[in-house]
Amino acid sequence: MAQQKGGTGKTTLAANLGVALVASRKVALLDIDPQHTLTRWHELRPKTAPKLTFSNVSGWRVSGELDRLKANHDFVVIDSPPQVDTDARLAIRSADLVLIPMQPSPPDVWAAEGTLKLVAAEKRKAAMVLNRVPPSGKLRETVTTLLQRGGKPLLTATIGNRTGFAIAFASGLAVSETAPRSIAANELGALLSELLEMLE
Ligand SMILES: Nc1ncnc2c1ncn2[C@@H]1O[C@H](COP(=O)(O)OP(=O)(O)OP(=O)(O)O)[C@@H](O)[C@H]1O
Ligand SMILES: [Mg+2]
């Protein structure tokens, strides 16, 4: 997860995608954001919930930790801070796929384009996903058209503005665990399928 703008959904999606993957794969979550939001989420996770390997490191430890986690997991989901510093660059460099969440609004799109350039500079594959999409309005269409015309790697899957994400997060859970039949869980499932298709 990378996006130099703050609050676009990196941590929310890292937690929810990690949990969605754990049903069938060996998953590790790596928090390299000094805010440690994902770490707080993981600390709240009930003991009875499916277990994910969890780690948080920064600085010179990032590379080694990534190698270690990659060696014995099918997926390593990395949550990075809202700026592309040295640590985030290391994460991008070693990623098979960089997911860039953004809200369908100009500031997020501009920041995402900056992040996309950094991913391209590292010769990595990127996917942009619209998050917190309002139920109606022209903004989504305008932004989608703009990105598609620009040949940007925008995913078909989108995530709506759903309070379920915050509710699940507050208990260390994912929407697939608190509300498996919700629209949020469905949208997340569609996002995961699209990402897996890109990776496999
Ligand atoms: N799809 C969504 N629907 C509703 N709320 C959401 C959604 N995605 C994220 N949020 C909320 O938006 C806020 C920011 O989300 P999150 O912490 O995941 O962003 P972030 O990109 O990791 O932020 P930062 O850059 O600070 O690390 C949180 O309060 C979260 O609950
Ligand atoms: Mg975050």
Overview of this protein structure:
This protein has 200 residues and is α/β, with parallel strands linked by helices. It has one domain (10-199): Rossmann fold. 48% of the residues lie in helices and 17% in strands. The chain is built from nine helices and six strands; from the N terminus they run H-E-H-E-H-E-H-E-H-E-H-E-H-H-H. It has helices at residues 10-22, 37-44, 61-71, 86-93, 106-121, 138-149, 163-169, 175-178, 183-199, and strands spanning 27-31, 53-56, 75-79, 98-102, 126-133, 154-160. The strands form two sheets. A three-stranded parallel sheet has the order 2-1-3, sandwiched between helices. Helix 5 links the parallel strand 4 (98-102) and strand 5 (126-133). Helix 1 packs across helix 2 (37-44). The protein starts with 9 loop residues before the first helix and ends with a helix. The model has no long low-confidence stretch (mean pLDDT 95). The protein binds adenosine-5'-triphosphate and magnesium ion (MG). Residues 6-12, 33, 35, 37, 82, 131-132, 159, 161-162, 165-166, 169 line the site of adenosine-5'-triphosphate. Residues 10-11, 33, 37, 79 line the site of magnesium ion.
